[in-house]
Design a protein that fits this description.
Number of helices: 2
Structural class: mainly beta
Shape: globular
Number of strands: 31
CATH topology of the largest domain: Methylamine Dehydrogenase, Chain H
Distance between the termini: 33 Å
CATH architecture of the largest domain: 7 Propeller
CATH class of the largest domain: Mainly Beta
Helix content: under 10%
Number of domains: 2
Strand order of the largest sheet: 3-7-8-9-10
């Protein structure tokens, strides 16, 4: 029996297929001509016994493999997440979406951090997809993008109550048929969480404008317009007026995080923060206090796309303007995930089934070990870790308490849920 994420009820999974071994056994059962006078009664009894064992074994397999699957989700990735939580004891829920955009429309949900039934928050209508999301304490912001048949353009949905309800705070005009549209290429919370900053690429592809919006009043202003490229925002510090971003093309392959720019909104000057010079930037994370940047870089793939292991974990000091090499790891392992641990800003990374914290003296401490490979990390704190393990098609999202070593399942799924992040009360 499966607790379906689609309707939150217990039902038999209609997509279930018996394992290949069972299918092979069924196809190898000999066909007996029941009209033949040569039928031996012992053969009939034997065949029925075999069939009975196969059927009961298959039913048992169905029960066993599905009894722990509390939901049926899709799409485990989160896009370019920004997690800003200082007090991990306040974690309350996971915000996410699920559904079919073409059929009933994507719906936003939330679940308690310790697990439990899902709660509905918002349906964003047919033919609209969540493309990326950010969380900041009790705030959630989600960008949706239309497909054919939608009646609205790109939009930003905002929640101030930990993902329990949403409203649209910004939207772009829907283009005329067969014509390109303006697009939101990235979105972040400002450093102190008082504003949402997003970049809009105009339909002609010739320039991008970065806008700042107060999510409560919906008042907005332009920070900068830059010609000739799409912008991928990484951070904005209200005190210094510094905006951090990468640039490139949107909806295309080949973008990397190898050259980080800054724009000073006070002096109107653009600068290069760092250039990895021949390495491929895979991920980067700015610390909560905006003092340093954690960088994961790889070697150029022989096919020219993406990055190959081994991966180098480095740190860039924004004040001292210098790099610090931390370690090289993951030769041949699955794709790693990096970040800073809440409260103490220590770097962490995933390697296989493990989440590892790197201490200031260079020693490594494994803080969590999953049963299957880590595929996503929503939060790492000293007392709690929220991560998913398995594959992108079949994963389990859990909340692990480090003191009691209790690991609680929040939800499980495969390919139709976008995880927005964790939120506080």
């Amino acid at each position: 029996m499966v607790k379906s994420e689609k309707n939150n009820t217990t039902q038999v999974d209609e997509d279930f297929k018996p394992p290949e071994e069972s299918q092979e056994l069924l196809t190898n059962v000999p066909v007996i001509n029941i009209n033949s006078h040569k039928r031996n009664s012992k053969i009939i009894i034997t065949v029925f016994v075999i069939l009975f064992l196969i059927i009961t074994g298959t039913v048992g397999y169905l029960w066993y493999t599905s009894k722990d699957k509390t939901s049926k989700n899709k799409e485990n990735h989160t896009t370019d997440q920004q997690q800003i939580i200082q007090s991990e004891e306040d974690l309350s829920a996971v915000a996410y979406s699920y559904g079919s955009a073409e059929k009933d429309g994507i719906e936003f949900f939330w679940r308690p951090i310790e697990g439990g039934d899902r709660r509905s928050a918002k349906n964003i209508g047919q033919n609209n997809y969540p493309t990326f999301a950010k969380t900041y304490k009790n705030q959630v912001a989600v960008v949706s993008t239309p497909s054919s048949g939608s009646t609205v353009g790109d939009a930003i949905w905002y929640s101030l109550d930990s993902g329990k309800s949403y409203s649209s705070i910004a939207s772009l005009k829907l283009p005329e048929p067969e014509k390109p549209s303006d697009q939101i290429t990235s979105m972040i919370f400002s450093r102190n969480g008082s504003a949402i900053v997003y970049s809009e690429l105009f339909s002609d592809g010739k320039q991008s404008t970065v806008k700042l919006i107060n999510p409560e009043t919906k008042e907005s202003k332009d920070l900068v317009t830059i010609s000739g490229k799409a912008l991928f925002l990484q951070g904005y510090d209200e005190d210094s007026g510094l905006l951090y971003y990468f640039s490139g093309c949107y909806n295309c392959d080949g973008n990397t995080m190898d050259k980080l720019f800054s724009y000073n909104t006070q002096t109107k000057e653009e600068s290069v923060i760092y250039d990895l010079s021949g390495k491929i930037g895979v991920q980067n994370v700015i610390s909560n206090d905006y003092s340093k940047i954690l960088i994961l870089e790889g070697s150029l793939s022989t096919e020219g796309l993406g990055a190959n292991p081994p991966y180098n974990l480095r740190e860039y000091d924004l004040k001292g303007k210098n790099f610090k090499d931390l370690l090289t790891f993951n030769e041949g392992d699955n794709y790693p995930i990096i970040g800073y641990r809440a409260s103490d800003n220590l770097p962490y990374y995933s390697s296989g089934k493990s989440i590892i914290v790197l201490r200031e003296d260079g020693t490594k401490t494994t803080v969590f070990e999953a049963e299957r490979p880590i595929v996503n990390i929503l939060y790492v704190g000293q007392n709690q870790i929220v991560s998913s393990s398995g594959t992108y098609e079949d994963y389990i999202l859990t909340s692990y308490v480090t003191t009691s070593k209790r690991n609680s399942e929040i939800l499980s799924g495969d390919q139709s849920t976008v995880l927005f992040g964790v939120v506080t009360k």
